[in-house]
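Incident log, structure service

09:12 report received: a user says their structure output differs between two submissions of the same chain.
09:20 pulled the input from the user's history:
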Amino acid sequence: MVAVLLLIAAGVTAVAGRPGPPAGSRVLAVTRDLPTGATLTDADVATVSAADPPDGALGVASQAVGRQLSAPVRKGEVLTDVRLVSTGRPDPGAGRVAVPVRPADPATVDLLTPGIHVAVLAVAESGQATLLAPDAVVLAIPPPSKSEPDKRLVVLAVPTGAADRITAIGVSGALALRFT
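09:34 re-ran on a clean worker, output below:
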């Protein structure tokens, strides 16, 4: 009987002496589902406690408010540095330049996220397409203009040799993007 009581006492002591869960780190989480390109406001983020936050987790609202999402996020998701579009000038990489384009079909923009590779095509009125750049990379998707919400802009990294032609056709003609 004494052995049983000692065994129970040892079990209670082991459980009681075990430390509780860590207090956690204070991180930012999203308060609602948001699409790619959304510009974060104070109402979109809240500080929460996370026992094991992901690498790059943001901890202060000022790190996120006013910045644009690089991908869609779900309510409750912890915000990390890679979920936000860079605050600096887009870096197109070696042999490429950044070019802003407006796809002829603005709904295409909703399917894009920074980092996706696309082909850039010039589309004639006849419907014939001409390949301008076989491998462009989406760098950024600025929020829609309030004055022209149906004319969406995308910033692409394109080969230097194709940049002028893409820019000129983008102003005077129709551009299409397709996934590669």
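09:41 both user submissions now match this output. Likely a transient worker issue. Closing.
09:42 reviewer note: Residues 50 and 61 are 16 Å apart (CA to CA). The chain has two domains: 23-83, 96-179.
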